[in-house]
Amino acid sequence: MTIFVDDKLKLLAMITRRAALKLEILGMKRSRAPSAYIIIKRAYGMTGNRTHVLEQLEILIQQEKEAQQRGYNNVQPIK
Description:
The structure is a single chain. The protein is 62% helix and 10% strand. The protein contains three helices and two strands. It has helices spanning 7-26, 36-44, 50-69, and strands at 3-6, 75-78. Helix 1 runs antiparallel to helix 2 and helix 1 packs antiparallel against helix 3 (50-69).
């Protein structure tokens, strides 16, 4: 089965993960699941501590927003 993911959904996932990471930095924790920090590191191949990963994610989100504003619309399949 192949699912097609639009860039807007990819951006939404990034923003949602950023919000979860910010809450973790403030002290909230997810129960029975990997932390947002681990999910982000695995998904985007980032390294460093939570604040450094947050900074990297902010840059990635900004780049994605700029790409969408230029009219770049790429649909990527996920298997």
